[in-house]
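Hi all, long-time lurker, first post. I run a small reading group and we've been trying to get comfortable going from sequence to structure in the token notation. Rather than ask abstract questions, I figured I'd post a concrete chain and ask someone more experienced to write out its structure so we can walk through it together at our next meeting. Sequence below, copied exactly:
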Amino acid sequence: MTQNKVNDNVTLITAGSVSGLFSATITYPFEFLKTGLQLHRNVVAAKPFEVLGYQVRTYFAGCSAVNIGVVMKTSLRFLAFDKASEWLRPPALAKDAPLSGVQLLMAGALTGTMESLCIIPFENVKVAMIQNSLLSHERLNTTTSNVQGQVANEVKKTFHKKPTLRSSYEALFPEKLPTNVLTTAAELYRQHGLRAYFKGTMPTLMRQVGNSVVRFTTFTMLKQFAPKEYQNNEYFATLLGLISSCAVVGATQPLDVIKTRMQAKDSVLLYRNSINCAYRIFVEEGFAMLWKGWLPRLMKVGLSGSVSFGIYQYTENMIALMRQERYLE
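-- Answer (accepted) --
Happy to help. Here is the structure in token form:
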């Protein structure tokens, strides 16, 4: 590998990591709100989780797990898309020539697959941390026996086998609930072993592939139609990132709801698999439930996408300028 190739890879990884970590942190309260709304089952008659009115720090429950995963995911995202595009580009095309629509879709799908493999364990820890935080607040106003009764009534429905002792409510939600990333990860391992980190793999994979396909296809196609003077402009990249992120929410929201439900700690009590989860949501809670949490997700994904693409373009331009001025030699 040439020195220029190494420098290009470092540029992609640095730009992706900086933009991903920054955007994930400032938009995390929207992620908390979205996940809290999606975790509540409309068939439960009891008072739902309250997701407003908490202390500020509560809205960052699970942020540490997300940040670990997002640095890995985002630093890989741009590098993976660049490599996939390079691999899919026909030899007859020039290096900077735009890819066709089919090639863009394939590059986005490959990028989404790689992202999913990185974030699935951290997403499971994040959902558990949010659920523990929400339940800790709910227990202040609801007795443990009532909450147990809600879950017991849900399990009595058809669609699912009787839970084993290891996956009973008491085992999943002990009296003292962990709230930091290490203790929550350890709790998940004690409850279900390594498979606890890979719940919801299929909907997460489908969502991430959908995210990347829609995001990068929309972003790249819009950028190709832009005037040449805007190609490397960070403000224009921010606008395109916002538009492409809005398209992502419109296309993948039901998958996001199913993913959250399957990664919940009590999913083992309620659902056999992702298809069973989607069916129960549709039959018992209605089609609208598949779009629960779309507004905070739109705000989160729209803001994070625009910031991510904008900072990525700015960082890439800055590193390119530093290299041009020979500061990196």
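A couple of things your group might point at:
Residues 200-291 form one domain.
Residues 101-138 form the longest helix (38 residues).
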